[in-house]
Structure formats: structure tokens, C-alpha cells
From TrEMBL, chain A:
Residues 21-139 form the Aldehyde oxidase/xanthine dehydrogenase a/b hammerhead domain. The lineage of its organism: Bacteria, Pseudomonadati, Pseudomonadota, Alphaproteobacteria, Rhodobacterales. Pfam families: Ald_Xan_dh_C (PF01315), MoCoBD_1 (PF02738), MoCoBD_2 (PF20256). The keyword Oxidoreductase applies. SMART domains: Ald_Xan_dh_C. It comes from the Bacteria. GO terms for molecular function: iron ion binding; oxidoreductase activity. This is Xanthine dehydrogenase family protein molybdopterin-binding subunit. InterPro entries: Ald_Oxase/Xan_DH_a/b, Ald_Oxase/Xan_DH_a/b_sf, Ald_Oxase/xanthine_DH-like, AldOxase/xan_DH_MoCoBD1, AldOxase/xan_DH_MoCoBD2, AldOxase/xan_DH_Mopterin-bd_sf. The keyword Oxidoreductase applies. Keywords: Molybdenum, Oxidoreductase.
TrEMBL record, chain B:
GO terms for molecular function: 2 iron, 2 sulfur cluster binding; metal ion binding; oxidoreductase activity. It comes from the Bacteria. Residues 2-78 form the 2Fe-2S ferredoxin-type domain. Keywords: 2Fe-2S, Iron, Iron-sulfur, Metal-binding, Oxidoreductase. Gene3D superfamilies: 3.10.20.30, [2Fe-2S]-binding domain. Transmembrane segments: none annotated. The keyword Iron applies. This is (2Fe-2S)-binding protein.
Length: 787, 161
């Protein structure tokens, strides 16, 4: 560990002190003078015609300030979608209007029908119960296959069908892929479900709208991963408020995992209502509400086929996926099953021909959007499962089959449009074999067998595209935003540094890791550097934190701004020492003139910038503050190999995760402690998806798993200690820090390892089982064992 | 509304509550002790964990009125007298036992209760005791490690920093 606390040091997190003492400031901890409370009356039917909403009695109840219905929002813009996908016929996707409050129809359980603003939350809730709603039930569209069938009930009457888009990628390769399958020596086919999940950050969403009648300024406090994105979407598309009259603040955010990226109706409501009632309006989601209003994740049904030649080389891959969009298009929903999924189908392998088809489907369910990994876990799961199945069909070692097909030369242009800049899949697999002590597995298996248990081993690889994203590229792919990041570096007169960044931590520890970079660049202590984020009023326009992009894109912007600072500071130092600028060196917080013993301290230069008595005013301005916007040249491509060992009770189908190992390549690492923590958390979410979590609707569109009693969150007893390693490092070639990002890897890489391990255990136990759909609950495993 | 009086973190406090006001709501809204969090509405997550008369309690499962006259301790009362982090809090920081921090107050309160009952818990005992506390960020690895370290056990053999 570097002694100076710079890049590569496991600095303890400074934000922990406030979180550990109850002094965090989350959105729900904010209370404004004169604040009112809103309670949303939500639909308890999945699909129906909204015949009437009678608020007369409710409006006269104690404490009620005002009640809003869909009528009040008829003239306001709908909640926008930020990505337009073009289908395989060149047509743009079908895009329904998403009203802030339901108007005319309700389309999922949980959709807002009315909003009661009152003096207290209890009074708002009481009054909401007195609202009379008349809904004429319509058949609910829940199953994706049925939704696409001819004559199905439509979720949106004004669309031609429930098909949002039919996407083919790469369409031009389709015939060649089919021909490769005709010529294949072996074809492995697998049909699987990527189960629907609920992100469940432990902090439920909260929104507080505030309006200043004196200036006409609106402020929204919200639980968001990206306040600038919310300001742009809500201001420009929903409420028509220009950015200079709208401020969005996201203080401490209690986890997000994607679900706090999106702009939600409740945010627009609170901002709108605060102006209407001229008082602050606060909404705090209950957990039950979160289950029916936070965007869900995953929910793909896929058929994947892998073609191999007689030497077991992969020759082609073909997939056919239905992706659930829910009732409306959430902010980034259309991009998840397409550009975040299809472009990853090459995985770590040199499969020359790939064709991906995705049909996105509207159903009467909560909107589905990005959840940790977003599209990349879906790609990894199907690919790594079909490879495992192929190995077992062919009677070859699953690791050997992977190694044989690894991409080994970089840069590597995949047949699915992306170019991997760097990686070393052999190295991560070698590291994994060592970490997981694979050579000792046979002994562990035999020992378990002696106790009557089936021990199974599952291994897989993953690749992800992070550091989202080159703006011109994503623009061509349908993004309605740029995906650069920004940073302003402000150096104060006495030498302290403030970095204002568009990235925003929701648990990743930016307040600790970002200063490590600046400390390294200047040679000052990290505690001289402060991070400001989460407030559009004091950060430059930035796109926020998701897609493992903060250090790769936000960190790069910070480096670029700091470079500008250092260049200017060198000019000042040169002036102070009467030397040539080219001879100035910055090291350990001091500027010196090469080849001499002349030097000035960092603080002398910063002071001169603000007290410019002896200063080159004719050449440069006073002050020391610079902004940079960084637009990445490419994605980054973290990769790795994961292993899971399970022990299964053949009597009951119950199994335990005995070991989980991860060998990741994240390129360069800023704070290893934080990186390990990110991987741990990701693995636990992947283990949750693969053995516990399942978001289930019945045929009426009622959510069956709407609380922690029914939706099984991973608990401490469900997981072991994890063995993670990131010593394999192939630095990113196109960003200044050589970093790739680590936030999603664990969630992407872990589900196939667990499922592969259970299938392995069952096959070793003599069961002819090739696949079980997630989550692998004891009952599903037991049923599979019964044939 | 009735006037309630109780001892919170060693100080006598008073405040108003309806009969239906939960203890957690009273702490957060009436006493402005916002360190205690609400993560669910089914008593499953443990983000609201406090101590009442020395016993661990999910403060969302108890009415404020039931705590009349009680001795309540919350996360705001867990640091050392001089304001420095207590052994448990310091162990969580040292071993990266928190990320977003939302579950953390509950985890610290649960840990304090566990170590009072069982000063040197095994890994399995720690995991078992955390059954009522959900963390979505850490995968529990570093929480379990922090708790074992707080109990004075050597955790250096457990993988990772
Ligand atoms: S808020 Fe009390 S257990 Fe979840
Ligand atoms: S640290 Fe985020 S929920 Fe535990």
C-alpha cells in the first residue's frame, strides 16, 4: 500500500464517520419549513378503464391541502424515455405516453391515480382512503408470449400491438449465422429465464418539492444517482422549467443499483405540487410502495444456441430474447436488452458470427429498467450457461472449453460492434484456479460425498462494457443524451482543493477515492481535497453514477481539470522563480526548477493566484479553478473468472454456497478496499438472483412478491466469506487513469457460476439435469430431481 | 396527541405523539434523531434497530407511547463520550463494513446487543444474529468481519483488506 494515501492505498472512508454516528443526511432527513406531505393513491388493479375519481369527500377531510388527479396533469408532459431504439426494419420503437398521474386508464398495479397533499402524512393517507375510484377492469397482459400473440389485449390502445420493438443485431450477419449453424458439428441449445428482480436499495425513494414564490425557483430534493439527469428530463420534458430555474439536490443516497437513475413520476409530482400549493411537498416511499413503483430489473426469456466445429471451436451464436418493458418505458429501459446486452454477446470468446434478436414487450406490470449490470448480466448468464451445457454434452472440461475459445489478442473487434482494448482472460482464469484451489476440489467433493452431500463446482467468465459511454456512438444508437462526465477543480488560496463532480456516490465512497487521485497528482495529503457532488447548483452538468462509470469517466474528467490546474500553476511558479515554464516540475506538493535548488511550495503558488501582487497578469488570469468535460473514446472492458462451490442435500434439494471466488481485471485500482467491497456486494446480489430473489406476478397482474416476507433478500446466513482478487490488471488504454470500473462485475459474473455449480452437483449425483431456471430454490431443485 | 417523556441517549426528553405514532417516527420526526432509519414496513430489515431498556428492539414494531419512561439508546448515543468512534464503530470503518450507510445504524445497534450477549461470537453465530438486519450493499462479508474484529478476534486471515 502506498504510504502517502494516494492511488492504490486502501484509505479508510471519510464518509463512514457520519454514517456510523447517525449523522448522515439522506433525503428523508430533510424537513422544510411549512412542509406538507403527499400520499399517493395507487391502482390495485393491473389494467382497467378509469371511469371516475371522486375526491369530494376526501377533500373536506382534516388537514387536506389539495388533491390532484390525472386531470391536473393532462397538460403536463409525460415522464420521458431517454433512449430510442430502431428496430431491425429501420422503424423506431413504439413509445407510449407515460402520464405523471393515470389518465383514462390504469396500466399496472401501483400506478398513481390520485395524490393527496395534507398537513401530515397520516392525514394524507386517511384522506386517500376516502377517495372513490371507479375502474372497469380489463384483462391484464402479463405473460410476454401471450402479449405478443395475435389478438392479445393491448396495454396501450394507441399502439399497434404490445411489441415495443423487434431488434436484430447484427442484422446483416443473420444469414451467415444461420449458415454456420447448418455447417456446425455440434449445436447446443438452451432455453432460460432471467428472473425479474427488484433492486431494493435499503433507502426507499424520497422526493421533496420546494418552490420560492419570490424568485420563481423550484428545488427538488430526491434520492437520485444523477441529479443533473433528473433536472434535464423533468425540467425540459415534463414540467417545462428551464434549468436555471430548477435545482435538483440528491444528498446522501442509501444505495441505488440502477433503480435511482430513472426519473420518476413522484419527483415531477412533488415539484409541480409545491408550486401549486406554494409550500414544500414531501413524499417518502414505503417499502410496499417501492415494490410497485420502483423500476424492476431483468425479466428476459431467452433461447440461445451455440454452434461448434469438430474441434470444439465456437463458430456461431444465435439468441432469441423477449424482454419485458412493463407498462411504460422507464428512462433507459429500451437500451438495456439491446445495446447493453447484444454488444456483450461475444463474451470472452472469439466466436466469429453472432446474431441477437430481442423483442421488447409491453405488459401490465411495473416498468422494467437497468438493475446492477443492466443487460450485461443477462448476456453473461445465457452465454456462460450455454457454454457449460455444451461442455457437458461434449464430455469436455468446461474450463478447457472456455480456454480454447478465449480471445487472446488485443485490441479485438467483436462481431457485435464493440472493440475490446485490452484484457487477459488466461491470466484471470489462472488466478481463479489458484484462488479457488480447483485442484483440491476432488478431495472436497469426496469428503462431502462421505457425509451424503453432493458437492458441485461452477465456473464462468464475464466481460462487461463499462465507463459508459462515447457520446457520438451512443447518439447513433438512440441515446437522447450525451454520456460524458464533468469536474470543476477549485483550488483555494491556501492550497485546499474542492472537486465538484457530476458523478454521485450512492455508497461507492467517492469522497474517499476521488481525493486519492488529486493527492497523487499534486503531492498533497488526501484530506486537503474535498468532493462536492449531488447538487446541480454547485456541480457542473454531469451525467451521474451508473454503468461502473464514475472513476473511468468522472475520474477522467477530474484528472483533465487537475491537469489544467497544474499547467496554470506551473506558469505562476515559473514567474515566481523567474524560470522558464518548461523547466518547472511539480513533486510532493512543491514546484522546483529542474537542475537547480529553487522551489516554491504549492501553497505559495495558490496564494499568488488569489493575491496576484507578483503575478504574470498580462499572460494569465488570477484564480485557480478549471473545469473539464471528459467524453470517453471507448467503453472500458473489465473481465474476470468466477467460481462457486455448493453442497446439495440429495434428500431435500436444499443447497448451501460453500465458497465463492472472483478473479477480476479492473485495470488500475484507486482504493483496493473499496473495490473489494464493490465485488462482495455484487456477488451477494448475484447469489440473491440465482438462489433466492424472484419478482412474481399472477395472471391478473397482481404482484405476489411485494414485501420482504415474500421477496427473499439475501441475508447474512445465505452467503459465505468471498475470496476476491484483482491482481490481474490490464490497464484501460484510452483513459488517463487506466481504470475500468468495478461496480457491477460481481452481479454480472456470479449467477452463472452458482447455477453451473448446482447443475454440476446434480449431474455428479447421477441426475440427468441440464438446467434449472433461477432462482434455484430448494423446491425447484427438488422438483427437477424428481424428473 | 399526548405528551411523552423518556430517556434517550442519557438525556430526558419530551415530545408529542399520537396513539398510532411508532417509536421510530417519534425518534426521527419529534426528536429529530434521524440516524435511525426506516427500510421496510414489515419489520424485516432492521434499519430501525435501537435499544430499549438495554434490549435490542426494532423501533418500527413499537408505539412511541409504549416507550414512555423507558431508557432508549440510538445510534446517536453510541460514540465514546469524547465523540470519538466506539470500538464497534471503529471496527466498521476499519474493515469497510458499510457502503451506503443506510443499514449501518441498525447494524451497529445489533452488534452492540450481540457482543453484550456473546462477547466472542463465531462467524456462524454472527451471521445467525444478523438474521433480522438486511444490507443490500456489502454482501455481509465486511460486516461479519467488522463484528468479529470488534469482539477482539483476529480477522487478518479472512480474505481481502
Ligand atoms: S424499518 Fe423496522 S425492520 Fe424495517
Ligand atoms: S451499507 Fe447500504 S444497505 Fe448496508
Amino acid at each position: 500500500m502506498p504510504a502517502d494515501g494516494g492511488i492504490g492505498a486502501s484509505n479508510k472512508r471519510r464518509e463512514d464517520v457520519r454514517f456510523l454516528t447517525g449523522k448522515g443526511r439522506y433525503t428523508d432527513d430533510i424537513n422544510l419549513l411549512g412542509q406538507t406531505y403527499v400520499h399517493f393513491l395507487r391502482s390495485d388493479v393491473a389494467h382497467g378503464v378509469l371511469k371516475s375519481v371522486d375526491v369530494a369527500e376526501a377533500a373536506s377531510m382534516p388537514g387536506v391541502v389539495k388533491i390532484f388527479t390525472g386531470e391536473d396533469f393532462a397538460e403536463v408532459g409525460g415522464v420521458p424515455c431517454g433512449w430510442q431504439v430502431t428496430d431491425r426494419f429501420g422503424e423506431v420503437m413504439q413509445e407510449p405516453r407515460h402520464p405523471v398521474i393515470a389518465h383514462g386508464k390504469v396500466r399496472h398495479v401501483g400506478e398513481i391515480i390520485a395524490a393527496v397533499v395534507a398537513e401530515s402524512h397520516a392525514e394524507a393517507r386517511d384522506a386517500a382512503e376516502a377517495i372513490e375510484v371507479d375502474i372497469e377492469d380489463l384483462p391484464a397482459v402479463v405473460d410476454m408470449r401471450a402479449a405478443l400473440a395475435e389478438g392479445s389485449t393491448k396495454v396501450h390502445d394507441d399502439l399497434t400491438s404490445n411489441l415495443c420493438y423487434d431488434w436484430g443485431f447484427v442484422e446483416e450477419n443473420k444469414e451467415a449465422v444461420n449458415a454456420a449453424f447448418e455447417a456446425a458439428a455440434h449445436v447446443t441449445t438452451l432455453e432460460l429465464v432471467n428472473n425479474r428482480l427488484v433492486a431494493n436499495p435499503m433507502e426507499p425513494r424520497v422526493a421533496i418539492g420546494d418552490y420560492a414564490p419570490g424568485t420563481g425557483d423550484s428545488t427538488l430534493y430526491t434520492t437520485s444517482q444523477n441529479p443533473h439527469v433528473i433536472r434535464l428530463l423533468m425540467g425540459a420534458f415534463v414540467l417545462g422549467i428551464p434549468e436555471h430555474k430548477l435545482r435538483v439536490v440528491a444528498p446522501d443516497v442509501g444505495g441505488g443499483f440502477g433503480t435511482k437513475i430513472f426519473h420518476y413520476a413522484e419527483e415531477a409530482f412533488c415539484t409541480f405540487a409545491a408550486k401549486a400549493v406554494e409550500r414544500p411537498v414531501k413524499w417518502v416511499s414505503s417499502r410496499s410502495e417501492a415494490f410497485i413503483s420502483d423500476a424492476h430489473g431483468r425479466d428476459h426469456v431467452t433461447k440461445i444456441e451455440l454452434a461448434l466445429d469438430a474441434e470444439n471451436n465456437f463458430t456461431a451464436l444465435r439468441t432469441d430474447t423477449m424482454a419485458n418493458m412493463g407498462a411504460y418505458l422507464s428512462t433507459f429501459a429500451p437500451s438495456v436488452p439491446t445495446w447493453l446486452h447484444g454488444t456483450l454477446m461475444a463474451g470472452n470468446y472469439k466466436t466469429p458470427l453472432i446474431y441477437v434478436n430481442v423483442k421488447a414487450v409491453f405488459t401490465n406490470t411495473v416498468p422494467v429498467d437497468a438493475y446492477r449490470g443492466a443487460g450485461r448480466p443477462e448476456a453473461t448468464y445465457q452465454l456462460e450457461r450455454v457454454i457449460d451445457k455444451a461442455a457437458r454434452e461434449l464430455g469436455v472440461d468446461p474450463i478447457a472449453l472456455r480456454r480454447q475459445n478465449f480471445i487472446t489478442e488485443f485490441p479485438y473487434a467483436t462481431p457485435v460492434a464493440v472493440e475490446y482494448d485490452t484484457g487477459d482472460y488466461v491470466a484471470t482464469m489462472d488466478k481463479l484456479e489458484e484462488l479457488a484451489d480447483l485442484s483440491g476440489f476432488e478431495a472436497r467433493r469426496a469428503e462431502a460425498a462421505a457425509r451424503g452431500k453432493l458437492r458441485g463446482l461452477g465456473v464462468n467468465c464475464y466481460i462487461e462494457a463499462c465507463g459508459i459511454a462515447p457520446s457520438n456512438l451512443v447518439g447513433q444508437l438512440g441515446a437522447r443524451a450525451g454520456l460524458y462526465e464533468s469536474a470543476t477543480v477549485r483550488v483555494n488560496a491556501t492550497g485546499g482543493v474542492v472537486v465538484m463532480t457530476g458523478s454521485h456516490s450512492h455508497g461507492q465512497g467517492h469522497e474517499t477515492s476521488f481525493p486519492q487521485v488529486i493527492a497523487d497528482m499534486i503531492g498533497i495529503a488526501p484530506d486537503m481535497v474535498e468532493i462536492v457532488h449531488g447538487d446541480t447548483a454547485n456541480t457542473p452538468m454531469g451525467m451521474g453514477t451508473y454503468g461502473s462509470r464514475s472513476i473511468a469517466v468522472g475520474g477522467s474528467a477530474m484528472v483533465r481539470a487537475a491537469e489544467k490546474i497544474i499547467n496554470k500553476a506551473k506558469k505562476i511558479a515559473a514567474h515566481l522563480m523567474e524560470a522558464a515554464e518548461a523547466d518547472i516540475e511539480l513533486k510532493d506538493g512543491a514546484f522546483s526548477v529542474a537542475g537547480t535548488d529553487k522551489s516554491v511550495a504549492w501553497g505559495d503558488v495558490t496564494l499568488a493566484a488569489y493575491v496576484p501582487h507578483n503575478y504574470p497578469l498580462e499572460d494569465i488570469e488570477p484564480g485557480l479553478e478549471e473545469t473539464a468535460f471528459y467524453d470517453p473514446a471507448n467503453f472500458t472492458y473489465p473481465s474476470g473468472a468466477y467460481a462457486c462451490e455448493v453442497e446439495l442435500d440429495p434428500e431435500t434439494g436444499h443447497f448451501t454456497v460453500e465458497a465463492f471466488c472472483a478473479a477480476d481485471d479492473f485495470g488500475n485500482i484507486i482504493n483496493p478496499m473499496i473495490v473489494d467491497g464493490q465485488v462482495h456486494g455484487g456477488i451477494a446480489q448475484g447469489v440473491g438472483q440465482s438462489m433466492l430473489e424472484n419478482c412474481v406476478y399472477d395472471s391478473e397482474g397482481q404482484l405476489m412478491s411485494g414485501s420482504y416476507m415474500d421477496y427473499a433478500m439475501p441475508r447474512a446466513t445465505d452467503v459465505p466469506f468471498f475470496n476476491v482478487d484483482h491482481s490481474c490488471q490490464t490497464p484501460c488504454t484510452h483513459n488517463p487513469l487506466g481504470v475500468k470500473g468495478c461496480g457491477e462485475a460481481g452481479a454480472i459474473g456470479s449467477p452463472p457460476a452458482l447455477v453451473n455449480a448446482v447443475v454440476d452437483a446434480l449431474q455428479r449425483g447421477g441426475h440427468d439435469i441440464t438446467h434449472i431456471d433461477m432462482p434455484l430454490s430448494p423446491s425447484r431443485v427438488w422438483q427437477a430431481m424428481q424428473g | 396527541m399526548t405528551e411523552l417523556s423518556m430517556t434517550v441517549n442519557g438525556k430526558t426528553v419530551t415530545g408529542k405523539a399520537e396513539g398510532r405514532t411508532l417509536l421510530v417516527t417519534f425518534l426521527r420526526e419529534e426528536l429529530k434523531l434521524t440516524g435511525t432509519h426506516v427500510g421496510c414496513d414489515t419489520s424485516q430489515c432492521g434499519a430501525c434497530q435501537v435499544h430499549v431498556n438495554g434490549q435490542p428492539v426494532k423501533s418500527c414494531t413499537m408505539f412511541a407511547a409504549e416507550a414512555e419512561g423507558a431508557d432508549v439508546r440510538t445510534i446517536e448515543g453510541m460514540a465514546n463520550a469524547d465523540g470519538s468512534l466506539s470500538v464497534i464503530q471503529q471496527a466498521f470503518q476499519d474493515h469497510h463494513g458499510l457502503q451506503c450507510g443506510f443499514c449501518t445504524p441498525g447494524m451497529v445497534m445489533t452488534t452492540a446487543a450481540l457482543l453484550k450477549e456473546n462477547p466472542k461470537p463465531t462467524e456462524a453465530e454472527v451471521r445467525e444474529y444478523l438474521e433480522g438486519n438486511i444490507c443490500r450493499c456489502t454482501g455481509y462479508h465486511n460486516i461479519v468481519k467488522s463484528i468479529m474484529a470488534a469482539s477482539g478476534q483476529d480477522v487478518s486471515a479472512i480474505a481481502a483488506e
